[in-house]
Amino acid sequence: MILVTGGAGFIGSNFVLNWLRAGLEPVVNLDKLTYAGNLENLHALKDNKNHIFLRGDIADSELISSLLTKHNIRAVVNFAAESHVDRSIHGPSEFIQTNIIGTFNLLECSRKYWSTLSEQAKQNFRFLHVSTDEVFGSLNKEDPAFTENNRYEPNSPYSASKAASDHLVRAWLHTYGLPVLTTNCSNNYGPYHFPEKLIPLVIHNALKGKSLPIYGDGQQIRDWLYVTDHCEAIRCVLDKGRIGETYNIGGCNEKTNLEVVHTICNLLDAQKPRADGHSYKEQITFVADRPGHDKRYAMDASKIQTELGWRPAETFESGMAKTVAWYLDNSQWTENVTSGAYLEWVNKQYIHAV
Ligand code: NAD
Ligand code: DAU
Fold first, then answer.
1. In a designed cystine with 281, which of 241, 265, 312, 349 is the match (CB 3.0 to 4.6 A)?
2. Is residue 61 part of a domain?
3. In what order do the strands lie in the sheet with 254-256?
4. Is pLDDT above 70 for 352?
5. b/e for 154-190, b at 16 or more Cβ within 10 A?
6. Which spans in 244-301 are helix H?
7. Is residue 22 one of the residues assigned to a domain?
8. Whose Cα sits closest to atom 2 in ligand 2?
9. CA distance 289 to 39
10. Could you give the angle at the alpha carbon of 197 between the alpha carbons of 194 and 198, nearest 5°?
11. 322 belongs to a structural domain
12. Residue 40 among the catalytic residues
């Protein structure tokens, strides 16, 4: 069995759905169900005996230790995190707690459990930590893409907390020999993406007739990867990655935020035209910039491509078309997650904009 943490969130739920669809080992899915965790994402697994869901915190050592032993876990895949940069600016403490203390606890429990295993089981065990390109800081336009050897230069409380967790993972290999792997991925998009993030927020606001908030001049660049390509990459690293290595994952799809928003507007104009026949682009509004906003991220994914043979299946165009179609077909999902706590967040973040 494998233990997936944060498997009710955006990437984690896509990963669990893909993993079980591929007929791989049973999954114990541990998630705290914060505002970002949503059991609706896992609805298709409700009668699946190969999926055990448990609500819990990765910082709870008793719970984690008992889970590892009880289910004879052979791999931990750690998605659990606070993941939204803007929220980390408003309130960093949860990010320190989950991303650093939580990862520390998961490592410690895994190390203790791993030390009790037979030699064979020890060799087969893996701890895969899911991290981000943001740990490398920000690139200028002409800089080469980040490789695994770039210096860590995190700029937000979110990326600093992820960087700290990556360092802990590295130390647990070098000090204790725990067989770890780390992946650093660029921006994901696709189904079940919580509408606080740019792409789902813009789709949601467009359809609601609200403004489409673009921070600053909209010329910041992100490297977009369709979520199932990220899930495949993680499976590939878990299966074939060399212990102790880190792997950069990216889509080779560098786009400015304004280009991304225009793409969404074009797709919506074609698939769900506004009643007045005007373009959704008319709803674009430039708002105050994010403090410390990183200008550009870009990933050099040649290591995972040459060593492990992974390549993304989706282009930006095919992935965006699928994503917009998914949100149009699943409007109830968005309705359900955009009530209550979500509204409080939007009111706080976009007080002068939306
Ligand atoms: P998300 O916010 O959608 O999901 C995070 C999940 O973790 C939620 O289900 C939440 O309930 C759960 N969680 C939070 N704190 C927890 C705790 N203490 N114990 C157990 N569960 C907890 O995030 P996501 O976008 O799916 O990101 C998943 C991981 O991938 C994160 O580690 C993130 O840093 C990383 N990542 C994300 C992206 C991206 O573009 N979204 C890109 C690269 C890396
Ligand atoms: O790069 C990987 C990271 O991508 C992950 O580690 C993070 O967990 C994930 O949230 C994401 O971080 P970003 O900050 O890049 O994603 P976000 O969707 O919040 O913003 C994307 C870009 O769009 C960024 O430059 C900020 C901008 N933006 C965002 C929002 C929410 C806007 O212009 N307006 C908005 O309303």
1. 265
2. yes
3. 187-189, 221-226, 254-256
4. no
5. bbbbbbbbbbbbbebbeebbeeeebbbbbbbbbbbbb
6. 257-271
7. yes
8. 187
9. 33
10. 135
11. no
12. no
- The rounded Å distance from CA 65 to ligand 2 centre is 34
Q: Which residues line ligand 1 (CB under 6 A)?
A: 5-6, 8-12, 30-34, 36-37, 57-59, 79-83, 98, 102, 130, 132, 162, 185, 187-188, 194
Beta carbons of 313 and 229 less than 8 angstroms apart: yes
Residues 6+ apart with CB under 8 A from 186: 133, 222, 223, 224, 225, 249, 250, 251, 297, 298, 299
In this structure, the dihedral spanned by the alpha carbons of residues 295, 144, 321 and 349, taken in order and rounded to 10 degrees, is: -20
**Cα distance between residue 24 and residue 29, in whole Å:** 14
Is the residue at 278 inside a domain?
Answer: no
Domain carrying residue 235: 2-186+226-251+294-315
Name the catalytic one among 57, 82, 158, 226. Answer: 158
Tally of domains within the chain: 1
pLDDT digits (tens, 9 = 90+) for 306-322: 999 999 999 999 999 99
What pTM was computed for the model? 0.98
How far is the C-alpha of 335 from the C-alpha of 9, rounded, in Å? 17
- Spell out the residues 6+ positions from residue 23 whose beta carbon is closer than 8 angstroms to its own: none
CATH number at residue 46: 3.40.50.720
Per residue in 2-14, pLDDT (tens digit) is 999 999 999 999 9
The two beta strands, 254-256 and 221-226, are antiparallel
